[in-house]
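Sample entry (187 residues):
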Amino acid sequence: MNKLILIIFSGIIFSCSNQSTSTQTAEENFIPKSFFDFTEVDHYSINISENEIWSLEEIDSGQTNYLFNEILTNLYPENIKDTAFIEHLESFGYTKSKISNAKHVELDSLFSEKKHEEFYQYMCLPEFRDLLIFKDSVRIVGIAKICFSCDESHILGANANTEKFGMSGDYRRLWNLLYEKKAQIKK
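Predicted structure, serialized as tokens:
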């Protein structure tokens, strides 16, 4: 009987150590994968208060406010091919700027699949004041809607898993990348 218990216990220990080794091997072999293969990025941002955003829901003035509200507060668009909304962004008050090519390497690093020590999600309703449109030489290859208040995103067109985007301080790094120079100019 003691031999049987010893054999079962040894089997359990051995199987646990094998799982640990395979997990470590998978982590060691992890290679970050970029979300997008891009050559150009447009950044659309809007300065709008939370009260102004939520008042859009109360105003029933047709399709225009509905589309604006969908862009600001919902997971719209649902498909990378649905890009018609982009031509309306500036009329809704978004400001368009091109991201300098010099920032593309860091942007690519942020928008890539990677390992994180922690994974968290806030429980708030996102307000997508920042949109990034990733393009290659001929078409839109990715859309990222960002809410810096909730550290939340809606990403379309990615070539990798986007579930852990923004963890380990990446939202703050992205904010700095997008707004650092603008903040310095205002001082």
